[in-house]
From TrEMBL:
The keyword Transferase applies. This is GCN5-related N-acetyltransferase. PROSITE patterns: GNAT. Residues 4-150 form the N-acetyltransferase domain. Keywords: Transferase. One of its GO terms (molecular function) is acyltransferase activity, transferring groups other than amino-acyl groups.
Amino acid sequence: MSDITLRTAQKDDLAALVQLEQACFSGDRLSKRRFKHWLEADNGIFIVARDNHMLLGYGLVLLHQGTRLARLYSIAIDDRARGQGVAKKILAELEVRAAQVGRLFMRLEVAENNAGAIALYQSAGYRIFGEYSDYYEDHSDALRMQKRIRTVGSVSPELVVGYHDVPWFRQNTEFTCGPASLLMAMGCLDAQCELSHEQELDIWREATTIFMTSGHGGCHPIGLALAAQRRGYQATAFVNTQAPLFIEGVRTEHKKSVMTLVDEQFKNKAQAEGVIVEYCELSLSHIEHWLQNNYAVIVLISTYRLDGRKAPHWVTVTAIDDMCLYVHDPDLDEKIQVSFDCQHIPIARDDFIKMQTFGRDKLRTAVAIKRLV
């Protein structure tokens, strides 16, 4: 077979596209009218694979407004081109193009009994995350699959800032996201740093706020900065308010008084131990600056956009580029995730700005650390 060329679908391809569709599918076909629509639409990515003589296949991705998702709507390969890697080439090109226009994930549906297609998608890194019953015209079920298509440096490597060799560490309790994130930050600056459950709990005991709205207390940014400083790092805590943190959702006055006292203690200890506390409005430019200067950074976000719970949650920043900020999330949900799903997670800049604001008081806080020389 001659060299395969991938290019954007054109009106001249219409007749061959219709013919290919008829040959590949017995149901759920795209009509000539729909092909015409997608050849002209601006909310899709439509490419074809050709050699010198014939149309070998096509791929169509839909770009829904208001989301960071791309959806693989249809892919078809001529029988004469099967086994030549055409489908894999088309899929890879669609992923690159979707990532270039700001999409972070690709989703698709595939017939549950289509073993060949499922194997192709799995080999390309797609994972099953759900299914639709009675999805196709023949009443067969469909599997839902997804892949992260935007990764650090995959689109604009020259624009990436950061991307230290950041180890991933899973938090062992529901309340130790702060210590787990700090351990990852310390680990990227010092390969000898021990990332352990014992260290995680030690840091939590040093940095805890004692109480939260429910359950055990989370970690205070100044407390985390103190813990890092005591372990040989230069630490700075950035907070946009001097008021006591995290008490707005606490109902009892006793808990509030305890948390206020802890807040005051952390501030006094920071002054005594040389930990810098900067009171300023935190922005992505701050994070970019720290990464450029070889700091490791952990940031507090609200989980509302992740799970609807509006809980404060610490994550470790690994890189930033022109479109996304990337984080290691220490919270692994084994029911739906593997550890890879929690590493270098791409979050669009605008989305991260919203996630980074916690509570009615719009708290923004982060801790930046650097190895002492």
